[in-house]
Write a structure and sequence with these properties.
single chain, 290 residues
């Protein structure tokens, strides 16, 4: 079995930084976590990728093509479609070449896939889901990690917006899902206290804040209350804060995702020889017989 985190989220939400710190934390913990860059518009990142989609196609290729003339958003969609159509390239990058492909994929790979920041790819378009299906066919167990910048989650309206975006990704991708609030280290002390209210929110009070005092809030009170009930009654969304300056924070989040992926569970299960165990116990008992 192989393991994969699909790192998604809006542009600027800290996806590449997340990958870099997770990889470094793994190295410090004597683990091997690789990163694959699947953002054709990436300019720089602080990790050495196992594979880089820009070697297959770059966003500029789609935007500068005389026939295509795509803009940035259309270009990103085209690049991901091109990747899916040329899946053999990605499979060869992950598996190390044609000889290994014939023998079968290696076990216990743990790879982070750093995805583009165009959220539409994962909220309602099909390319993200198609990528996951490819990975599953290559013996990967996957988990989607949805990153949101914590600086934009410190008031009720933005919290609801971020929550609905997370729900959209969860519904479209149909995979185990973890929501991560990034850039906690950039928040002021006051902002951190405010953010704590949204980590375990009292949804009824939050909805009350949004529906009282404004004409818009009063007009859409029932809709707001329905959204609040959806979030609270079904416990669909929970956010995990990530402080990249705190090793314990990184380790706790990785442990949470490892648990979802069931990573390392086989290593924890030890089959014991009960006949041998009984024999050893008898030998120990004989030592005390005088």
């Amino acid at each position: 079995m192989r393991f994969a985190q699909i790192i998604v989220g809006p542009a600027g939400s800290g996806k590449s930084t997340y990958c870099s710190f997770m990889q470094q934390h793994a190295m410090d913990s004597k683990r091997n976590i690789q990163v694959v860059n699947l953002d054709p518009a990436a300019e720089h990142f602080n990790y050495t990728p196992l594979a880089d989609i820009r070697e297959l196609i770059h966003l500029d290729d789609a935007m500068e093509d005389e026939e295509l003339h795509y803009g940035p958003n259309g270009g990103l969609i085209f690049c991901l479609e091109f990747l899916i159509e040329n899946q053999d390239w990605l499979k060869a990058q992950l598996c190390g070449g044609e000889d290994e492909l014939m023998l079968g994929e290696p076990d216990d790979d743990y790879i982070l896939f750093d995805m583009p920041g165009q959220i539409e790819l994962f909220t309602h378009l099909k390319m993200g889901k198609q990528l996951v299906q490819l990975l599953e066919s290559w013996n990967f167990r996957t988990c989607v990690v949805f990153c949101l910048d914590s600086q934009f989650m410190v008031d009720g309206a933005k919290f609801i917006s971020g929550t609905m975006a997370a729900l959209s990704v969860m519904a479209n991708m149909e995979q185990p899902h973890v929501n991560v609030l990034t850039k906690i280290d950039l928040l002021s002390t006051e902002a951190r206290k405010q953010l704590e209210l949204y980590l375990e929110p009292d949804t009824h009070n939050l909805m009350g804040e949004l529906t009282i005092g404004t004409a818009f809030g009063e007009k859409y009170r029932k809709l707001t209350e329905a959204i609040g009930s959806l979030i609270e009654d079904f416990s669909l969304v929970r956010f995990f804060p990530l402080d990249t300056e705190d090793e314990e924070s990184i380790g706790d989040l990785l442990l949470q995702i490892d648990s979802i992926l069931q990573f390392g569970e086989d290593a924890d299960v030890q089959v014991r020889d009960f006949d041998e165990l009984e024999e050893n116990e008898e030998q120990e008992a004989d030592m005390y017989i005088v």
